[in-house]
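Dear colleague,

Thank you for sharing your sequence with our group. We've completed the structure prediction you requested, and as agreed, I am returning the results in plain text so they can be pasted directly into your records. Please verify that the sequence below matches your submission; if there's any discrepancy, let me know and we will rerun it promptly.
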Amino acid sequence: MIRVCNLIKNYGDLQILRNITIEIQAGEVVAIIGPSGGGKSTFLRCLNLLEIPTSGTIFIDGVDITESKININTIRQKVSMVFQHFNLFANKNVLENLTLAPIKTGMMSKEEAIQKATLLLDRIGLKDKANIKPSKLSGGQKQRIAIARSLCMNPKAILFDEPTSALDPEMVDEVLSLMQELAKDGMTMIVVTHEMGFAKNVANRILFMEKGQILVDDSPRGIFDNPKNERLKDFLSKVLRH
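Please find the predicted structure tokens below.
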């Protein structure tokens, strides 16, 4: 589904990502953990070209998305993204937020987009919020709407950049439970997260990143029950203490 070869990202003289090579299969839920500033979000943003790699290649469904002639919008239909701060359009209501991209890209007619969006809102328990502006919603509701907006594009994979870190603690569970449902449905998901419980219980696979490198790529059991990497042990001892 996703194949990354020798990915490097520099900002001037600063190297953010160092020679990352990895494959992610369709249906996998991959959690990315590690200290702040380790390159997790930059790596995620490279996967749909929100950040342009300095060098290396990224294949999505066999297509090299780093080629200069590639249509970025086509890639973002296949690999959508859910941000930490929701990024909903404040001047549009919930239904318009969900239907704008499918209509603008010509993926669906207006009627088809409204039908799909209505079904998704029903699924996430927010059908009654269709005509409300995002400012009237709680943080947890906004994030669920943002996930539904991604699903409206029928993506092959969804990238989540710390989707719960801006939420009040009591709203975290409603977002994580929706993500858990998507995992059960077989959605390919790559999730940068500080939620160790989610990583342990929902992910098939966990990447531990530091200083722009993937230091460990293992199962949740290998990460949490039997970590061999000393830096990973140190990281877990700090985050699991709280």
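Summary note from our side: The chain has a mean pLDDT of 93.

Kind regards,
the structure core
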